[in-house]
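Friendly challenge for the regulars: who can give me the structure tokens for this chain first? No prize, just bragging rights.
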Amino acid sequence: MSTSRRTSNCSAISCSPRFVYERSAVYVSVTADNGFDTGNVYELRMLTTSSDAPPASSRALGWWRTGAFGAQHVIVMYTGCVTVPLVFGAALGLDTKTTGILVNADLLIAGIITIIQAAGIGKFLGAKMPVVAGASFTAVTPMILIGQEYGINAVYGSMIGAGVFGVLVAIPFSKLLKYFPPTVRGAAVTMIGLSLIGKAVSMIFDDKPADGAHLSLALGIIVVAVALMRYGRGFLRQAAVSIALVLGTAAAAAMSMTDFSGVGDASWFGVPQPFFFGAPTFPIAGIISMSIVMLVIFIESTAYMMAIGESTGIDVTPNRIARGLAADGASSILAGLWTSFPDTIFAQNVSLVRITRVAARSVVVVAGVILLILAVMPKLGETIASLPGVVIGSVSLVMFATVAGTGVSTLAQADYRDNDNLLIVSLALGAGMIPIVASDVYSDFPSEVQIIFGNAISSAVITAFVLNLFFHHFPGRRRRPAEPAADATADQEVVA
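First reply, four minutes later:
Bragging rights claimed.
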């Protein structure tokens, strides 16, 4: 008769029992207690296990599921990632060939930083979390202003200087976690989702009044995605976004809404070259402006990492935050060398982790590898870039709305017994909405003011951060009265 003994196998996600038996070996994939598939494989193992049994790490998720989920991450972030070089190139009057080079460089750096964030480099770089990095929208406006004032070489010199600054302040910044309670984090994530919804709608309708064809197609895509999330099982549920995207693209093709003519003109192979525009220059004003941008990126990335931690159960420590922020700083240095753009954690991918409930870092590593392949194979990148805007916008709308919902769930953790936190959240969201409803309100202010307050995310986060300090950390703050102790005899029946 065989015997068994029980041991414990605990991780940051969950703690599951580990059984060790006396004869054969069986490997089983277990979903964590919170519903997330981390790719972990728990082992039912007999003491006389065969030597040819595969290690647990090699059996996590399976190669085809890992690849499919990794490709899904790339698809949902690709358009947002390449939009930054497209907008930047148009603003500075660059030709299409040069802009294409910027796109390839952008994908290269995004792939490198995504792999670093997921896998990590020692104890110095990478959050080791299922997050995907891409070009930050926050940097677009200051980069354009610097380019117009000092020339394009100054843009990348300022980026390198800001990256060095970011790496140096990553650890001190990570020590500020106590100043990011649910009110600050929730306001940040909520505003991120709300501000990006407008971009999704713009992609759906191409900045034109809504018409029946685009509206019906968008509605159909959203219905398919939501239905799969509700009624799908296993892979169908987890791949709901990709399935809706494929079906939406097929429907768009049937409605003559697709144009893949640019794919044939794109080259099969091309490696982005460093210092494409020549040696960078380092204007002090430009470095200061981009350093401010770096701090804003840090605030966004911190909120994203903590949101991932809350969703998956990953322990988000100051050290983990510091490594993630250092990777953001490193992205700015590499971007300055390869004429790319500073990276940040992408909201749509944070949302995708929550929707699919797949938190395996191997999936994100695969996404990074795919980005590297796209960077050196422009034809493949052009294929993804040619997907109809109405399709990308529709799936993005679902994910951005999920981001906002995640922020609301974080806000629900705050204590609203007095008006302090309510006032913090209300004013922060109000400040964030100002540049959304009145986009030109700060246009006559200096560039530094536009960088901070002309961005909905940064204005909301900074407002929430400052107000939280004022109400809860400044000397002389109001103390909440203690809850009255429950009367032990209150519920007892009085007997005469």
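Residues 63-91 form the longest helix (29 residues). The longest strand covers residues 4-10. Your move, everyone else.
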